[in-house]
Amino acid sequence: MSDSNDLTRRQALRRVGALLGGVVSAPTVAGVLSGCQRQTGTDWSPSILSAEQNEMVDTIAEIIIPATDTPGASAANVNRFIDAMVGESYLEEDRTRFMSGLEDINARCKKNYGSPFVDCTAEQQRSLVATLDDETFGENASFDRENPPFFRMMKELVIVGYYTSEIGASQELKTNVVPGYYDGDVPYEEIGRAWSGAGT
Q1: Best exposed site among 58, 137, 154, 171 by fewest CB in 10 Å?
Q2: In sequence order, what DSSP letters do the residues of 146-167 get, joined into one string?
Q3: What is the mean pLDDT of residues 158-162?
Q4: How far apart are the first and last CA of the chain?
Q5: pLDDT at residue 60 above 90?
Q6: pLDDT digits (tens, 9 = 90+) for 108-135
């Protein structure tokens, strides 16, 4: 991993911590620092996700970081980053928890809307993601850093995947990090746009 890539990854971890209460789950930290790389090219296909699961991940990522006046998570190929992280860097127990989370989303969609997630309307998809966000990050939610719930891992991976992409690093990541120095008390107005997503 190059020095510039390493710095970008650490910037993204700091961004995740700042956005999600200062603590990043152990699976995400370990995966990011392992140097996991998303594949590029038009002939890409997922290695651990099925075609349906990949579509789910891509859709959820875009709901969390949608396109505005800059490209969103889908354009940044965040789904490819997540596929690589889950397939290559996660421990088996974390991989199982993540994949089970995708199965649970489909089960909830079938129960609530009569269709799997990918066949739900955009409004139904956004509603479910908002519910997951509230369950995971609401005031009554608990957090186990070593065994985080599915949506905690998902949201962390989306943010890290986005801000370590070329799009996220060049168009959205506006902080200037000096190696060896981190200021965690920078007014939002000095940073600019940082985040859009369900539950925020």
Answers
A1: 171
A2: SS--HHHHHHHHHHHHHHTSHH
A3: 88
A4: 33
A5: yes
A6: 999 999 999 999 999 999 999 999 999 9
Total number of residues shown for the chain: 200
Query: What are the boundaries of each domain within the chain?
Result: 3-39+48-191
Distance set, CA 135 to CA 67, 114, 131, 171 (Å): 25, 22, 6, 31
Nearest CA among 45, 44, 76 for reference residue 157: 76
Where does the pLDDT of residue 167 fall: very low under 50, low under 70, confident under 90, or very high at 90 and above?
A: confident
Chain centroid to Cα 61, Å, comes to: 6
Q: Supply 13's token pair.
A: 């971890």
Both tokens of residue 74?
């889908």
Q: What is the distance between the alpha carbons of residues 22 and 172, in angstroms, rounded to a whole number?
A: 20
Residue whose tokens read 């990050």: 137
Using CA atoms, how far apart are residues 83 and 68, in angstroms rounded to an integer?
24
